[in-house]
Amino acid sequence: MSSVFRKHFLPLSFRPLVVVVASSIAASTAVAQDVQTVKIAHAGPVSGGIAHIGKDTENGVRLAVDDLNAQALVIGGKKIKFELAAEDDAGDPRQATAVAQKLCDQKVAGVVGHLQSGTSIPASSIYAKCDMPHITASASNPDLTKPSHKTTFRLIANDNALGAALALFGADHLKIKTVAIIDDRTAYGQGVAAVFKATAIQKGIKVVGEEFTNDKATDFMAILTSIKNKKPDAIFYGGLDAQAGPMLRQMEQLGLANVKYFGGDALCTEKLPELASKAQALKNVTCATGGASVDKMQGGAEWKKRYDAKFPGQFQIYSPYAYDAAMVLADAMKRANSVDPKVFTPLIGKTDYKGVTANIAFTAKGELTAPAVTLYTYKDGSRVALN
User: Fold this and answer.
1) What is the pTM of this model?
2) Which of 134, 146, 157, 334 could be a cystine partner for 371, CB 3.0 to 4.6 Å?
3) What is the pLDDT of residues 91-117, one digit of tens each?
4) 115-124 pLDDT per residue, tens
5) How many domains does the chain have?
6) Shared domain check, 171 and 97
7) Edge to edge, what strands does the sheet with 78-88 contain?
């Protein structure tokens, strides 16, 4: 046998092994090619005074992405690997629109966000132009869905429900007769304050003063001194916990600790007692959130255990809704058998999904068909549901 022949000759017994190895390599390559990465974005403030709230919603999306990947989903014939695209809008409308454009350019599959109405409203028009679905887990101003963008959805009750519920509770249960109103001039703060005022007046409550501040302020002594002279039974504040905390401390310093204090969901957080330095005025807080308390959600108790195990000490308020928002996006992809937003977005409007927070379905405008409202107060430094 020549050396050339020996060099290229393979005994028959080795040929099947070569074929098997080659087939395995080909199969592995095919499997690798069949995995498609799908990015679900979170957009919200993870820097600044309300970073703790933004981080909470981001955590909710992270948990959803992990759970979706554990399902090993196949959509459109491809194995899907979900990834989180996390963006910080710093609670600033200009930065929010820049973030929205960036996510459009990156061609993410969908967005959970933004946190605030003032960032969600301008961002929504950007998403509409690029056919990008976004579901807010927290922004509550009714103006968000007024343009009827087919890409905009809200997973909580809006300010019409929150402001009205607070005014009705104040009139019917706390029997307040007079109120002073403060708002932070944001779309959210002005919106919820306007609804509260309108409902309060309908219920016979007299508005004795109206003041405004901004969502970066920390000194409210001048505003509160002016209000003190009008001797209201209650103060309504349309704004965030980052301002409500110092405001409650300063109310106590001015002898207003016994004045009732109302606010919407953005101040109704687990962190408010810390921000208020556990001031005595906390006991007079009544605040409203757009949904059930986590312990009364249909999947809340078990979900909260898993959240706390993964993100200990970080729970605030909106993360269950952010989790469900991500799951609703994925559910629409599964039903459409496509991860193309232009294909699956129309199916979001036809959602019938049993989520952690509730059974989720949307109106033609992208609002929940059956939104819930929960009222809270604070006892011994903890948030406690009233209903």
Assistant:
1) 0.86
2) 157
3) 999 999 999 999 999 999 999 999 999
4) 999 999 999 9
5) 2
6) no
7) 74-75, 78-88, 35-44, 110-113, 134-136, 152-154
